[in-house]
Write a sequence for this structure.
């Protein structure tokens, strides 16, 4: 079993503010009778919210997106690190130390796990 | 031996009752992720197992905290004892560490009195988590009334609180990493 973070913490934060799904849906600008169901699907990890919705969640709950979607952030960060590692092996003519430093930092990032700080 | 810090440690505390079960999911000592109650009627054990399965697969806890219904002096119903064993078996099958806490341990740790009441324990946990739980604290039960279903949540919360007080350090070291 994992000590990995949950894909998102939307439900926890909604409960913290004692808001209903319908109310959050209204704040997000969802329309229609079943707008609350969209929030429900977001919370149950069955629907991936758009960037606009993710930023709206940040604004509603007052927590950064990377904290609200901690598990997803952790996974994406890991994937980026793997790709950065590949890029560090790439030979380029003009070796820019800044570029090398940036890639090395990216490749080692999940080891530090800043999302949990 | 791998050591997981208690900060990123997720637990699911479950209190079984006559009409289903109450549960609390916590990450670390102070963060409640989710709490609630699941109702079971008809074939109560089968329904409870199905609902537990859903919870386990949704939250993937590191530790499942249950009441030790087989402890000396425990007078829980045979159905609850069977269900407890089934849930324990299910958790172990999924390689989830199980921690059992007896009623006596609960009362001793929370109240310092083995004869303390559930109401007192509920009030104590409500004081510790006022934002989440205070509004849900049921009124003191009258002798002629049956127990409020919301007490399940407080029973689960008490298990979680005692887990963090007593067993967390030991369990974290034994559970190891993912």
């Amino acid at each position: 079993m994992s000590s990995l973070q949950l894909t998102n913490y939307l439900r926890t934060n909604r409960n913290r503010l004692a808001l209903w799904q319908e109310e959050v849906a209204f704040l997000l600008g969802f329309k229609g009778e079943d707008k609350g169901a969209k929030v429900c699907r977001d919370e149950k990890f069955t629907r991936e919210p758009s960037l606009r919705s993710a930023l709206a969640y940040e604004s509603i709950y007052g927590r950064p997106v990377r904290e609200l979607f901690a598990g997803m952030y952790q996974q994406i960060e890991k994937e980026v690190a793997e790709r950065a590692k590949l890029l560090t092996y790439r030979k380029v003519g003009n070796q820019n130390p800044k570029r090398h430093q940036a890639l090395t930092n990216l490749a080692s990032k999940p080891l530090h796990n800043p999302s949990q700080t | 031996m791998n050591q997981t810090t208690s900060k990123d440690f997720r637990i699911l505390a479950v209190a079984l009752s006559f009409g289903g079960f109450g549960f609390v999911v916590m990450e670390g000592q102070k963060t409640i992720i989710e709490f609630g109650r699941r109702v079971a009627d008809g074939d109560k054990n089968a329904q409870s197992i199905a609902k537990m399965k859903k919870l386990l697969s949704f939250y993937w806890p590191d530790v499942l905290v249950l009441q030790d219904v087989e402890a000396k002096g425990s007078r829980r119903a045979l159905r609850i004892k069977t269900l407890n064993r089934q849930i324990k078996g299910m958790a172990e099958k999924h390689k989830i560490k199980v921690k059992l806490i007896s009623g006596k341990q609960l009362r001793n740790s929370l109240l310092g009195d083995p004869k303390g009441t559930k109401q007192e324990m509920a009030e104590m946990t409500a004081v510790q988590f006022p934002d989440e739980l205070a509004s849900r604290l049921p009124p003191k039960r009258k002798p002629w009334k049956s127990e409020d279903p919301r007490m399940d949540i407080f029973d689960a919360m008490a298990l979680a609180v005692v887990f963090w007080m007593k067993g967390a350090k030991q369990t974290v070291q034994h559970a190891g990493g993912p």
